[in-house]
């Protein structure tokens, strides 16, 4: 009887220890998630280079997309919004490509450790598109394992997906390539055309030129239907949707507009307010 009682006690102790171990593992896992919350894939850092720490501020706020404006000066791609503010030390290579390559190497193949989904790097060309794109292509090829690649009809995902926006003349040399490390940012006029998502994965356009609503009052039903028609058509073709020039001043109107964009399935919310969009998306976890 004493032996049986002892065995029962050991069994009970083992179960208790197992339960404690399971709880501790769950707590540790929750702690990891708290320290490394999920990236905010729908967050787009507009004019990212204007922040105190280009790229790193956006990554610190867990953004899934960043935007860099480039000017071709000689054989350098300088970062800035206007030609008057260019600085030879602020290049696409130094502010974005080299830091991304180092981060991906440190994280064993991804921008966000443990997440294989690519970060989007939207490159907005401010000088003549064809010549600037050809120089951009040369820069991207210096990092052969960093970028999502299109080759002979197939897309090969990489840690970063470069999407070319801005001057539309970039489209000509891009379409002529059978292999490239960048994709084209379409406009609403490209929606439903023969260009596939393997060339135009993103449809972007100016919100104020397509919608009158700025978040104040009710969203007109006709505009809500139009918005959902746009996202539905894009998603049916494997494309994503982004609008620029959306209201970006903190307050109820911006929150109302962002909520409607999320509800309609818009893939990227455009902002200069990194902390504001991070807080909004954290408050809407289903997004």
UniProtKB/TrEMBL annotation:
UniProt cross-references to CDD domains, sorted A to Z: PI-PLCc_GDPD_SF_unchar3
Domain of life of the organism encoding this protein: Bacteria
UniProt xrefs under InterPro entries: AIM6_PI-PLC-like_dom (IPR039559), HAT_RTT109-like (IPR051236), PLC-like_Pdiesterase_TIM-brl (IPR017946), TAT_signal (IPR006311)
Organism: Streptomyces musisoli
One Pfam family this sequence matches: GDPD_2
Identification of the protein by name: Altered inheritance of mitochondria protein 6
Signal peptide: 1-30
Keywords, sorted A to Z: Signal
């Amino acid at each position: 009887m004493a032996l049986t009682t002892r065995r029962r006690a050991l069994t009970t102790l083992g179960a208790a220890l197992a339960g404690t171990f399971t709880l501790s593992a769950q707590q540790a896992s929750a702690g990891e998630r708290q320290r490394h919350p999920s990236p905010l894939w729908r967050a787009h850092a507009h004019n990212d280079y204007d922040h105190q720490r280009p790229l790193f501020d956006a990554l610190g706020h867990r953004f899934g997309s960043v935007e860099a404006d480039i000017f071709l000066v000689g054989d350098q791609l300088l970062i800035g919004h206007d030609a008057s503010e260019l600085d030879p030390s602020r290049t696409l290579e130094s502010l974005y490509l080299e830091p991304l390559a180092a981060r991906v190497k440190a994280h064993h193949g991804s921008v966000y450790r443990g997440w294989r989904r690519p970060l989007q790097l939207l490159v907005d060309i401010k000088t003549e598109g064809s010549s600037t794109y050809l120089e951009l292509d040369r820069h991207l090829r210096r990092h052969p394992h960093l970028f999502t690649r299109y080759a002979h009809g197939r897309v090969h995902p990489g840690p970063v997906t470069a999407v070319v926006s801005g001057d539309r003349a970039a489209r000509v040399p891009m379409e002529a390539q059978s292999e490239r490390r960048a994709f084209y940012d379409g406009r609403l006029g490209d929606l439903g055309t023969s260009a596939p998502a393997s060339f135009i994965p993103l449809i972007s356009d100016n919100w104020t030129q397509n919608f009158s609503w700025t978040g104040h009052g009710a969203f007109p039903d006709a505009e809500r239907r139009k918005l959902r028609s746009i996202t539905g058509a894009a998603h049916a073709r494997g494309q994503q949707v982004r609008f620029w020039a959306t209201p970006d001043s903190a307050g109820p109107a911006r929150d109302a507009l962002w909520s409607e964009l999320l509800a309609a399935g818009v893939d990227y919310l455009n902002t200069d307010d990194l902390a504001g969009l991070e807080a909004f998306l954290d408050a809407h976890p289903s997004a």
